[in-house]
Amino acid sequence: MANRGGKNRKELEENDNTITHVQCDGLAVMKMVKHCHEESSNMDLAQGALLGLVVDKRLEITNCFPFPKSPDENMDEEEYQLTMMRRLRRVNVDHFHVGWYQSADVGNFLSLPLLESQFHYQTSIEESVVVIYDTQKSARGFLALKAYRLTPQAIAMYKDGDFTPEALRTLKVGYENLFVEIPVVIKNSPLTNIMMSELSEMMPSSEGNNFLDLGTASVLENNLRCMIDRVDELYQESMKFNKYQQTVAKQETVSFLLFLNVRY
Question: pLDDT (tens digit, 9 = 90+) per residue, 74-91?
């Protein structure tokens, strides 16, 4: 296990050594959790901004706020974010933009808008991350909070704007190295730690063990359903590609025969 952890850290340093881990305050985590669960009840996607600062190679997330969801088309989201950061600065709260967060459903978060948004964040703010909070897994008793960054190969691909198979093969970009996961550490204040220690002493051991009996069958079922959907999509795309290859081969054969007839 130790060798495996050292290998993962070595790969992380080779891919991206801007930050080594993300330290998130408990207050910011609770805000993200509350917002994501509120939006998930309406089947909406929750997104928001992360605020904090960078200390050495540690990214500290100390606060956050949600992006507006208003039917008013005249609302400028960028102006809204700047106004929020200015007001937070007035009350002596960290106002530096260090990334953004988004909710997910059973790990299904990868999409083209997410890739584009993280590319713009990471090119403008070098240390920025995207934090993904999985509402379904967390509802079953497993805190699913992960931070990701685009790899240098993925950034180079977006800068070139070339998404052909040859370009992907040249840059060695695949699903396994599109993102790099950054370890997340949750930090609470000393007063919070004291309160949690007192609560754990007040809670009987029999009641505390009840939290270990949470079921995982529904989470496993949802994961399998999502995997089946993705396999079906892959099968459909492969069928389309095979038909395309057959059509191209027929056109090339017809063109070759016409060339021979014209020549001879």
Answer: 667 777 777 877 787 777
- 12: Cβ contacts below 8 Å, ≥ 6 apart: 20, 180, 182
Give me 57's structure tokens: 């190679």
Q: Are 132 and 101 in contact (CB under 8 A)?
A: yes
Map tokens 């801007």 to a residue: 18
Strands 184-187 and 179-182: unpaired
Q: What is the Cα 133 distance to its own chain's centre?
A: 8
- Report the residue count for the chain: 264
Strand-pair category, 129-134 with 96-104: parallel
Distance CA 145, CA 131 (A): 7
Neighbours of 89 (CB within 10 A): 13
Residue with tokens 């069928």: 239
| pTM of this structure | 0.67
Question: Rounded to whole angstroms, what are the CA distances from 72 to 1, 46, 68, 226?
Answer: 53, 18, 10, 34
Phi, psi (deg, nearest 5) at residue 87: -70, -35
* Phi and psi torsions of 185, nearest 5°: -120, 125
What average pLDDT does the segment 54-70 reach?
A: 84
CA geometry: angle at 62 spanning 67 and 114, to 5°? 40
Residues contacting residue 35 through CB under 8 Å, at least 6 positions apart? 46, 48, 66, 103
Q: Is 214 left (phi over 0), alpha (psi -120 to 50) or beta?
A: beta
Long-range residue pairs from 37-43, CB within 8 A, at least 24 positions apart, any chain: 37/135, 37/139, 39/103, 40/103, 40/105, 40/135
Residues in contact with 39: Cβ distance below 8 Å, sequence separation at least 6, in sequence order:
45, 46, 103
Extract the tokens encoding 249: 């081969």
Give the model's confidence band at 215: pLDDT under 50 very low, under 70 low, under 90 confident, else very high. low
